[in-house]
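Recall the central idea of this unit: under ordinary conditions, the amino acid sequence of a chain determines the structure it adopts. In this exercise we apply that idea directly, starting from the sequence alone.
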Amino acid sequence: MLSLISCGKSNEVKTSANKEQNSSSDNSVKNDVQQDKDSEDSQVTSATPKDPQTTPKPLEDKNVEVLKQENIDIDGDKKTEKIEILKIKQDSEGSGENREYEGKLRITDDNGTEDLTFIKKQAGLAGVYSNIEYNDLDGDGVLDIFIEIPEVGSSFTMSYFFIYNPKTKSSYKFVEDNQYINLRNLADSFSFDYVGSGTLEIASSRFGYKGRLNISDGRQDTSEEMFLGYNRSWVEPVPIEMGADSRLMLVRTHEGKTEIKIPMCIFGLATADIIGEVDAYYTVDNSFKPVLKRLEIIDYGKDNKLNIIGNIKVN
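Accordingly, the structure predicted from this sequence is:
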């Protein structure tokens, strides 16, 4: 009997802290992601300033940890605002990795203090925050805040995000699929067909695209029977971190605009067999919602180099 996992060409992927490798042929790692307990995590939220007399928790509170603190002029008025990322231990049962925490953004200026919760989750191995950046995402002249939220599946490190506009008090949180970023529908629009000679065709009728992936390099088993198994390849609908340039990140276009890059793996015979990726690029519109602008299709197969085999303009 053909062993699907042993036939695939393995690509090194950044793993969780326990360093265990998962070679399961399950067709989705998303079920391994810890469920976010915040009922608003998949919704677009609107944040409003709160009474500074009732909002801030004293930093002497043993349940509050300051993860990040810096002074940034985000609105261009020549005055800096104090930006803090707080991790707040919730009053609930559990300890260690099972303890629930709240990730909170705190902005302090001459007018007072504003607190916004950007995530509530079990700490796990990932924590509540991994990166913060400041960039004008919607072109209104004010620096918006981009917070990266780490998550860990059984084998993969992945990230979600929270963005906030201090001028309009608008925010957007991407933790699960929703109406604006529906990665599952996007991933399911691609199909695969082995066409012979170690070549796999990837196609999307939704975007009118066809391309070819090289799946023959470096394989011991090059039988047609093995290659036919690649007809079951799939695009994984979560933003998995695969390397320094293949991760959730902000990128700058040649026109000077900022895009949010969301990479998705193309798995072959198993989750240990990464044969490419589909990178989705989003911009933020005037209503502070992400809009899909373009896709890049990347082939991992030839000489272990990343080769762009498709550029799809969406909007």
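Residues 1-58 have pLDDT under 50 and may be disordered.
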